[in-house]
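Standup notes, protein team

Yesterday: finished cleaning the Paenibacillus aquistagni set.
Today: TusA-related sulfurtransferase structure.
Blockers: none.

Input for TusA-related sulfurtransferase:
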Amino acid sequence: MNHDKLVDATGLACPLPIVRTKKAMNELQSGQVLEVHATDKGSKNDLSAWAKSTGHELVSDTEENGVYKFWIKKG
């Protein structure tokens, strides 16, 4: 999936993946897509809930070799 910006939060524990995602999302325009990579197992629930509560859309997410990948469209 295409993205406008990538955040590599692999190896970081909660809350850092969310903190880095929020900072990167502030740099995007509405409709742009942020790709996030994380290894923290809680990231799946955390990023999904964060996107919903902040008006963004979790377009897709996958898990590959212990790395969780998320694509979030800015609302």
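Follow-up from PR in the comments: Residues 43-54 form the longest helix (12 residues).
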